[in-house]
Each structure stands twice: as C-alpha cells, then as structure tokens.
Amino acid sequence: MTTDVQIFGFNDCPDTRKALRFFAERRIPAHFVDLAERPATRGELRRFAERCGAAALIDRERPRFRALGLHVAGDSPERLLSRALGEPRLLRTPLVRCGSKVAVGFAPQEWQAWLAAGKANPSGR
After folding, report:
1. Is 61 exposed, middle or buried (0-12, 13-18, 19+ CB in 10 A)?
2. pLDDT score, position 25
3. Which of 12, 18, 54, 99 has CA 20 to 30 A from 31's CA?
4. CB 88 within 8 A of CB 40
5. Nearest alpha-carbon partner for 107 in 118, 119, 95, 99
6. pTM (2 decimals)?
7. Which among 103, 105, 109, 108 has a CA at the least distance from the CA of 48?
8. Regions in the chain scoring below 70 on pLDDT
9. Are 55 and 49 in contact (CB under 8 A)?
10. Checking DSSP bridges between strand 95-98 and strand 5-9, what pairing results, if any?
11. 106 touches 19 (CB < 8 A)
12. Residue 44, number of CB atoms within 10 A of its CB
C-alpha cells in the first residue's frame, strides 16, 4: 500500500506531534510541513476548506485569535481563512492530507479509517 500523508502544523503543537506519532507508530511515512517556517498556500487551504468548510479551519481558541481582536471582529470564516495565509497560528492544526482525503485537528479515528480503506483497496482510490 502506498500512502502519501502530508501533515501541516507546528512543532510546538501537541496535536500535531500526536498526528506525527500516530503515523510513525504505524510505519506510514508522513511529510511534515512546519507552518511556522512555510505557511500554507491559498490552494492548500482551499483544498481543506472545500471538504471541511472554512469555519473548521479556524481555531477560535488560540491566543493569536484573541490577540488580533478577531473574537470581536465578526469576520466571515472565508475572510478569516484569507487572514490565516499571513497568520498561520489562526489555523486549527494539524491539517492532515492523504491523497484526496483531508482532516482538520486531531482525528485518529478518521486517519485509521483511511488506512483501513487503503488496505482493503490497495490502489488507494
């Protein structure tokens, strides 16, 4: 089974570290993108937003969300997502992609389902 997993997150994010450990424990290679070093592109964020919704990508509990005054701004999720291009700490992490499947946040049951489906269908589609 060939599984291409890409994890977007931060080195200091506990959920991102859990995602990396989840795939490492199952010997699934995962490409890690540290958003502190390389922010996500508009296309990458759009892929997640199309499947999960823009609101799911924004972490309203992060300190950066409050520090920027966004808790009172009332911006739309799409506008917040545009803002996250320059302020990646607004994103809920990890953002995990496996082929055409995506997940936002710590979602081990969903990842396990991807792996199980990949074993049942080795072509990965």
Report:
1. exposed
2. 96
3. 54
4. yes
5. 95
6. 0.84
7. 103
8. 1-3, 68-77, 120-125
9. no
10. antiparallel
11. yes
12. 17
